[in-house]
Specification:
Elements lengths: L25 H15 L11 H7 L20 H28 L3 E5 L6 H4 L7 E6 L1 H13 L7 E6 L6 H7 L9 E4 L8 H14 L5 E7 L11 H10 L3 H4 L8 H7 L3 E5 L1 H8 L14 E7 L4
Helix pairs in contact: 1-2, 1-3, 3-8
């Protein structure tokens, strides 16, 4: 849900099949954009994305959604636009920090956003000089983003290279053809992506990232640990998302048993650390905290580094 998820066949939510961000899992990219817009306008924001509300307004599916918490009648008590949106704001900040810190630590100059969708990090973060940001997603999603950003005359703060390809296809080959250097350190991000993918696709993605990563590279991704997601089908986050904007997240998530991607990376020689979102809520002094019947209970953020010898 960090950007747009590619390579999936989600359940029909009434708009499936429309190119770009209007169909299936693509609508979750707009939900996250709305959450980032709400976070941006908070007085105690954790992250700012001034472009996010323009994506929301540009797509018919989301044109009427709130982009400020003041537009939500029950404000922060609203499970979707209050607690869930704050989660996405927190996730944005934590992954922003990881990317920038990893770039400086590794001396890396290339970033790869997997399923980039409506991610605007190339435009809003202060990247090191000479940095290149590769954005992998379907052409329709990137076209929608380009249209909105071009209308705003937005200028990236790094060299930005869109890679329009479905993750089911040879995205690694397309990435290399676009100028990615597998012999140089790189920083990878799969934000809100993996739990929409079939297990085999997740394993292939992790294997490919490992193969294309030299020593000193880093990777951040998000997983869910629940063995039975349907136990949380009545969680307020899921029910409010379905009721308010028609997105049934549990039907979009892949139901197969998940691979242990963090463990796989350890076996390949990476170092990994796994955190709950609540760890960072406490660190930053805002963000979601645990509650009963919590759909966020199994969410984990994994940070991995491929050590230098």
């Amino acid at each position: 849900m960090g950007g747009h998820v590619v390579g999936t066949t989600p359940a029909n939510n009434g708009t499936e099949g429309v190119e770009g961000v209007e169909g299936g899992v693509g609508v979750t990219a707009l939900m996250v954009a709305a959450a980032r817009a709400i976070e941006t306008h908070r007085h105690d924001f954790l992250a700012r994305d001034v472009y996010a509300e323009h994506f929301v307004r540009a797509a018919p599916a989301s044109a009427g959604w709130p982009v400020r918490i003041q537009q939500v009648p029950d404000g922060d008590a609203n499970p979707l636009w209050g607690r869930f949106a704050r989660y996405f704001g927190l996730r944005t900040r934590v992954l922003d920090d990881f990317l920038l810190q990893s770039m400086h630590t590794a001396g890396a100059h290339q970033v790869v956003l997997l399923g980039a969708g409506l991610d605007t990090r190339a435009f809003r973060l202060d990247w090191p000089r000479g940095c290149v940001v590769f954005e992998i997603d379907r052409a329709g999603v990137l076209d929608f983003k380009h249209k909105v950003l071009d209308g705003l005359s937005a200028d990236p703060k790094a060299a930005r290279v869109p890679v329009p390809i479905d993750l089911r296809d040879d995205w690694a080959g397309a990435l290399v053809e676009s100028g990615f250097d597998s012999a140089a350190p790189s920083v990878w991000l799969a934000e809100g992506l993996l739990f929409y993918l079939p297990a085999a696709a997740e394993t292939n993605l992790i294997d490919t990232v490992d193969r294309l990563s030299t020593q000193g590279s880093a990777l951040a991704f998000e997983v869910k640990l629940e063995k039975d997601l349907m136990e949380y089908r009545n969680s307020p986050i899921y029910t409010s998302t379905a009721d308010q904007i028609g997105i049934d997240l549990l039907r979009l998530f892949d139901g197969e048993p998940r691979p242990d991607s963090a463990g796989d990376l350890l076996d390949k020689g990476w170092s990994t650390s796994m955190h709950t979102p609540f760890d960072f809520s406490r660190r930053h002094g805002r963000g979601p905290l645990p509650e009963d019947n919590d759909a966020l209970e199994g969410n984990r953020w994994v940070f991995a580094k491929k050590p230098r010898s």
